[in-house]
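Hey, I'm writing a tutorial for new members on how sequence and structure tokens pair up, and I'd like a real worked example in the thread rather than a made-up one. If someone can provide the structure for the chain below, I'll link this post from the tutorial.
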Amino acid sequence: AAYRIQKLWRHRGTSASSTSRSVRCSSTMTDMTLLEDTDVEAAAESPFRRAFSISHPREYSSTSATIRVDPAGGAAPLLRAWWEDRKKRALEHLVIETAGPVLKRTLQDIGDVVKTSVTSDPDMWRCVRPVAHTAMSEVWNDIQMEIESRIKDAVLDRQEVPEDAPTARGCLSCVFLGLRSWVLFHYLPYNRSIYGKLADPIYVLMTLSTTLPVFGIRVFFFSAVLFMLLFPGPPDEYQLINFILIFKGTQFFTVGVAMMFIGAMRYYACYLFDSGDLRRCIDVNGPGSSDWLSSEIFDYVGGIVLVWIAFLALPLSSVHLSGHRKTSEHEVKVYCCCLRGVPTRGGRLRWLLRYDMVAFALSVATYMPIYMVKSEESQDENKRHPHQALVHAKETVYWCRIFYSLLSLPFVLFAVPLCGRVLTHSIYTGYNEFGACVEFRYKEPPEGKLR
């Protein structure tokens, strides 16, 4: 195509009688065909507009992009689009087909070195060595997969996804969707990291509300957020994973660490200021004694129920279309009796959810037998003082919640952005001001501000 244009340009000063002939030029690289019977004299006047004019807009596609050519621009936009397409295809071939195998072999070699160094301790127990080698192999496979995926995302053209917000029918639906858009945009924004969120007073108030030592508020807030993520569906994979990590990560600090400190300070205050009747002080002012038993059980059971609702909804979730990962039909299976979805959604997170169930059972098995044995021994005393039996139940549930929350420490590691992305392989998304789930991107800095 470039050779034909140069030839026509060199003949732009010749006469029509000596240069009038038909010219046909085609490019098999991008399936672009120029018009036949092109007059060279016409090309002499305007070689880019008349000799290669296009009667109607056309779309030219390749493996990397789709190009739409405007007929008003003539051949110059067409050739620029063709050249850009060739450069993209060459870059894709260089990175994916040429450098891809080399990168894969390099990562495998690095992984072999890392796995060998992990198990190189001669004093390591024999039962620990295969477990450590297997765990390191699985983690390194996830790291390698994430590196290759990020390189492909950087080279390949990402699809443009329409940012369609959910529509409302009826007054109540309109109010709910308006509230949903407002809450999700401030709590899970698409254009602000943790530093930008901390500059938003609404986000700070929402977060502080979940740290109040009032039982039931935290579970109620996250129940509302989970309902907004699920309806209207389908939910987004990353948002459900992020919900689980935020809920369990904050549970470790607010319920585990903070409430354990409060309980210890209450015991210390009874010992310091009412040492004469320590038992009575603990029954009146001890940890959990002044709270409702129903609210404590609601908070304790809600800590595992909300997580498993989000986990069971993960196979039904959708992956943001801007990535290059597609779901094939053979990945859709029946799970949980009658539901159909993709059970592999969430990556390694499903193993943590099984651990969470074991942690909940362990917290119950640790404190409930002690409470039952003590209740049998003090039946006569409980008949004389029925309020005392209720206080014992409250304090038992209080420490069950703390022990269960402290066992949520592994979720905190997943909450780290890099670790969560590597182990779950999800696409980072957020919600815009209209309530639509879009891919995360930083907002443009104002003019004159250092990037």
